[in-house]
Design goal:
Bound molecules: adenosine-5'-triphosphate, magnesium ion
Largest sheet of chain A: 7 strands, mixed
CATH class of the largest domain in chain A: Mainly Alpha
Distance between the termini of chain A: 54 Å
Organism (chain A): Candidatus Thalassospirochaeta sargassi
Main location (chain A): membrane
Pfam families (chain A): BPD_transp_1 (PF00528), PBP_like_2 (PF12849)
Number of helices of chain B: 10
Membrane topology (chain A): Multi-pass membrane protein
Radius of gyration of chain B: 18 Å
Number of helices of chain A: 19
Oligomer: heterodimer
Shape of chain A: extended
Keywords (chain A): Cell membrane, Membrane, Transmembrane, Transmembrane helix, Transport
Strand content of chain A: 5-15%
């Protein structure tokens, strides 16, 4: 305050006081305002940062979550209910399915099992996405139509031994012989055979409504007698007529298990019958009829079935996905050769672009006269860096593939990528080289070193971390690049043999998987691998950079 | 004058149109320490850099006059690489390269073609020893040089110059960025080195000039105002301007 007073020209006491007060007030308001602005800025900036972080975490988290976990809603004719010992319609006795332990199989439905035995898909691919030949074994007493490749044995033990030792082998044995396979290293697979039979009246369309599917919860409610009208679960206005399977039958036991009730708790509204033929007839005849039924029986009796909807969760990406070769458009197998192609692509791209990029950067910073030409070149590189990659792809197609006649393949693709990432490498290398202190150059020159010696031995090593960062950045872009490769590198997912072979990489594989609607699970698994590779490259490079100086 | 290592005659130096040195003539004696003093901007650094032709790097610079090194004109046919090998330079701010201590010292010899590891080992040890820093770094030769203290870095830079076996060492305010202890270590070192080398040192520190130099040159506005035995310059200068400067009346 005293300072303030001293600076004032001497005036009367009152006016000084007034002046001081008004100054004080101004200062207070000013202080309050600036404090408020500060708080506001902090909050705004913090929110921006938090939002960015949240979006990042959400995206990455989502993709990686989907990559590691598959979670799909499926609709099938079959209820997801299977037992180890199951009735097969063409066999008079209950059957057990045994499978070689290398076959990734958790369950199978009756249709698939029948066709496997007929040798129709001769490869497991259709059933479990695994590229393996199917080798079916049956006993000589087994009934049914078997394919030519199906091997017939006289006893259960030799089937078990064959299934244990032969990759891709499976067999069916009578449930009565279950004890005979003890001690063999093989998997026993539950077979789904049941569906939901309904009367045709249930599937009629009324008021724009039609019963389409039933899920586990709805089924349970119906079987427990908790629902009395189809309307309640999305169907038409029609009372439900629940038909209970003949006591003691396979369907009967499944009923109790699916409903989660004991025999005494069977709903009174249910219509019971002791006769299998009558059971089927009642489901068919009674208005709003529903009953659990063997799919084959339904087919044989022309009975309508309702689709069953269930949620299938499980691990998505697994080790085998990394180490198996892709087959059949990537529907089957893993991505091993695609990963290798990706590595080749990255290595080649780095090999092409790094020397050229660093060379150009050195020329621009150390040799070129800093005039208009350099400015134009700089503007050019900056513009190039911003051009959409699909245009590079087009250019690569016209120039490399067509004009230079390199064909669609690894070389054309990597050359296109090189062009694409070169500007980034040049720009970052330039910055890195410029950041090397002038005194380094002076020190080297004063020792009698030549210009090139100085650049090569002092400047570039000192700029190496920065240059490396640029290269990594560019590699990150190259790894994930798709558009530039569409017309230049091709889609062959086999391992590339030479520079001219078409090669599919992770990004183009992902593109194909989604575009052709092959599998979202596989797309997310592939995306996860891509992300992990980019992360790994980043971590590795920071480790490298921090290494010595 | 047989004792003369460098002999400068009628030297004019231009940065473009700006004339930074006017008609400078000077004899630098062998195995002596010559101090260059004068107010800021008077051309001391410029003069120093004409001696190893570091000024060539400045675009648009021009030199008139002659500089003889051991009787040969360095702006004539003399090989510039040989010149810089023979006339080494220590800069104001320590500037070790982003390499290990060993590689910093071995850098010069390697450039001049020495590849043998044993020979390099010897050179490195000898240079570091001469620069009085061997004991401090002998256990960490492979550590980054940038991890040393400022004073150590400057002695390392001196060792780096010594490693190429120069004849003359130019120093441009080598202690201005250092603390008093490091400064006095470097001064002792200079005293030690003058047995084998001819040293020219730019300094703003009058005491330092008085302590370490045999002769002193006083620059003013691009002219060499006066040069002579350090004692004479300090206690009995013939020029009024020198006296004013020495006594701190300006500058
Ligand atoms: N590269 C250059 N281009 C143009 N002019 C320069 C350049 N370097 C120095 N000069 C000018 O030449 C004159 C002498 O500079 P010089 O660096 O030799 O002074 P100095 O005596 O070393 O000063 P100081 O004691 O501050 O280091 C100054 O006027 C300076 O502005
Ligand atoms: Mg200077």
């Amino acid at each position: 305050m005293s300072i303030l007073l001293n600076t004032q020209t001497p005036v009367t006491d009152i006016s000084i006081e007034a002046l001081v007060n008004s100054e004080q007030r101004k200062a207070d308001t000013h202080y309050r305002k600036s404090k408020r602005a500060n708080t506001l800025a902090t909050i705004t900036l913090w929110s921006a940062a938090a939002l960015t972080l949240a979006i990042l975490v959400y995206i990455l988290g989502f993709i990686i979550y989907k990559g590691f976990r598959s979670d799909n809603i499926l609709e099938t004719d079959y209820i997801n209910y299977g037992t180890i010992e199951s009735p097969l319609p063409w066999q008079s006795d209950d059957t057990i399915m045994i499978v070689n332990s290398d076959v990734r199989l958790k369950e199978i439905n009756g249709d698939n099992l029948e066709s496997l035995l007929k040798g129709k898909p001769s490869n497991w691919g259709n059933i479990n996405e695994q590229d393996l030949d199917v080798i079916p074994y049956v006993l000589d007493t087994a009934e049914g139509n078997f394919g030519k490749k199906t091997i017939i044995k006289n006893d259960v033990e030799s089937i078990a031994a064959a299934v244990e030792n032969q990759v891709g082998a499976f067999g069916i044995i009578p449930a009565a012989d279950a004890d005979k396979i003890d001690g063999y290293k093989l998997n026993v697979i539950p077979v789904w055979s049941l569906g939901i039979g309904v009367s045709p009246t249930v599937l009629e369309i009324k008021d724009n409504k039609k019963m389409r599917f039933i899920d586990g919860d709805m089924l349970k409610d119906i079987l427990r007698g908790n629902i009395s009208n189809w309307q309640e679960i999305g169907g038409i206005d029609l009372p439900i007529t629940l038909v209970i399977p003949p006591a003691g039958s396979y369907e009967y036991n499944a009923y109790l298990e699916l409903a989660g009730i004991s025999e005494d708790e069977l709903p009174d509204t249910g219509i019971s019958t002791g006769n299998p033929a009558e059971y089927i007839e009642q489901i068919n005849k009674l208005d709003g009829g529903i009953g659990i039924i063997q799919i084959t029986a339904a087919e044989a009796n022309d009975m309508k079935t309702l689709k069953y909807q269930y949620r299938k969760t499980g691990r998505n990406i697994q080790m085998w996905f990394l180490f198996e070769e892709p087959k059949r458009a990537g529907r089957v197998g893993g991505v091993s050769s695609i990963i290798i192609n990706t590595i080749y692509m990255v290595l080649l791209t780095v090999l092409f672009s790094t020397p050229i990029g660093i060379g150009a950067a050195v020329y621009l910073t150390e040799y070129a006269k800093q005039g208009r030409l350099v400015k134009i070149i700089r503007l050019g590189t900056e513009t190039l860096a911003g051009i959409p990659s699909i245009i590079f792809g087009l250019f690569g197609f016209i120039v490399f593939v067509d004009y230079m006649n390199l064909g669609i393949g690894l070389l054309s693709g990597t050359l296109t990528l090189t062009l694409m990432i070169l500007p980034t490498i040049v720009r970052t290398s330039e910055e890195a080289i410029k950041a090397v202190p002038r005194s380094f150059r002076a020190g080297s020159l004063a020792l009698g070193a030549g210009k090139w010696q100085t650049i090569y031995k002092v400047v570039i090593p000192a700029a190496a971390p920065g240059i490396l960062t640029g290269v990594i950045l560019a590699v990150g872009r190259a790894v994930g690049e798709t558009a530039a490769l569409l017309f230049t590198m091709g889609f062959d997912y086999r391992r590339v043999e030479n520079l001219n072979t078409s090669a599919r990489v992770l990004s183009t594989h992902l593109y194909q998987l989604v575009k052709e609607g092959i599998s979202f699970d596989r797309a997310f698994a592939t995306a996860t691998i891509l992300i992990v590779i980019v992360l790994a490259v980043n971590v590795l490079s920071t480790k490298l950079v921090v290494r010595k100086y | 004058m047989n004792n003369s290592k460098l002999s400068v005659k009628d030297l004019d130096f231009y940065y473009g149109d700006f004339k930074a040195l006017h008609n400078v003539s000077m004899e630098v004696e062998k195995n002596k320490v010559t101090a260059l003093i004068g107010p800021s901007g008077c051309g001391k650094s410029t003069f120093l850099k004409t001696l190893n032709r570091m000024n060539d790097l400045v675009e648009g610079s021009k030199v008139h006059g002659t500089i003889l090194y051991d009787g040969e004109d360095i702006y004539g046919k003399y090989d510039i690489i040989q010149l810089r090998k023979k006339v080494g330079m220590v800069f104001q701010a320590p500037n070790p390269f982003a390499m290990s201590i060993y590689d910093n010292i071995a850098y010069g010899p390697r450039i001049h073609g020495i590849k043998n590891r044993k020979v390099l080992d010897q050179i490195v040890e000898k240079s570091l020893f001469q620069a009085a820093i061997w004991d401090e770094v002998k256990d960490r030769l492979n550590k980054p040089a940038l991890g040393l203290s400022g004073g150590q870095q400057q002695r390392l830079c001196i060792a780096r110059v010594l490693a190429v076996e120069p004849d003359v060492i130019l120093m441009d305010e080598p202690t201005s960025a250092l603390d008093p202890v490091s400064t006095s270590r470097i001064e002792d070192l200079i005293d030690e080195l003058k047995k084998d080398y001819t040293i020219i040192i730019v300094t703003h520190n009058m005491q330092q000039a008085g302590r370490i130099s045999d002769s002193t040159a006083f620059f003013l506005h691009g002219y060499l105002e006066e040069m002579g035995q350090t004692e004479t310059i300090f206690f009995n200068p013939s020029s009024k301007k020198t006296e004013d400067y020495i006594s701190g009346r300006f500058g």
